[in-house]
Fold:
Amino acid sequence: MPHSACNCRCVMCDIWKGNSNLKQLTADDIQGLMLTLKKLGTKQLLMSGGEALLNPNFFRLCEILKKEKIRITLLSTGLTLKKNAADLVKWVDDIIVSLDGDEDTHDRIRNIPGAYKKMAEGIAAIKALNPGFRITCRTVIHRLNFRVWPGIINAAKSLGLNQVSFLPADVSSHAFNRQQAWDEPRQHEILLSEKDVDELKGIIGNLFTSYKTDFENRFIAESPEKIRNIYFYYAAYYGHNLFPFKKCNAPWVSAVIEADGTVRPCFFHEAYGNLKTGSLEEIINNKTAIEFRKNLDMKKNETCLKCVCYLNLSPAAKLQ
Structure:
């Protein structure tokens, strides 16, 4: 996370509420990581945030990483892609933009007038420089956009994106700059109501029919089973079923480094160190980190049970 601030004010995220308390990684921070990254054979980094492009030294950070042939994926709001298009094509391998709906829905959820248009212009600018440049999108499905789900798929196609991916909204963790976990009224601003859950089931069923080809050719990244799990996730809040189990090895194959140097096993679990007090190698192999991985039971851990995303890389996994 090169930069702690964000240039959107999304209803399902609190990162922007901490914009006044700015933190960012420096070139020295990245140089300090390189010994560990090389030793571990790191192949890919995801630049997230906040909005990573707000870091004025973002492309210098990329330059350091690219010297070691590390692939860089940028997760972005899309608002500043256009003005950075040439450098993005030069230094970044692929981009994931956040897409919340059709144009009106997207702008309303982002709380930024013209956000969709700016993202569209940025995508077009990059594709004009390199038509083969891979840009995909990620959509959080929640109370404010689940009814326009087909419109999201259509919007992704209109934008010229290579793929679209979906996940439910996290409302229970301390991630996304939540100093305190959301109370029940705040959760229900984003959670589907019990009545909505029944409607969601029908919408998902229609997706399997109307977008059958898009599942088959993987324009929709998830399998029908994983899309159906979004229904089961929301249904679990009303006791209709258990939260769907998600096979994940994120704490064993990756780490999250926040803008202030905090190191976590993933986005949702508690930190176990900070780069200001030790190297990344020392942190991920300290007693706390080892005990966490050794004792983590994803079938019982409350954070894992309610997790909305997962990373499961096999030893032979090919990273794009």
Observations:
- DSSP finds 14 helices and eight strands in the chain.
- Confidence is low (pLDDT under 50) at residues 174-180.
- The longest strand covers residues 134-141.
- The beta strands are 44-47, 71-76, 94-98, 134-141, 163-168, 256-257, 262-264, 273-274.
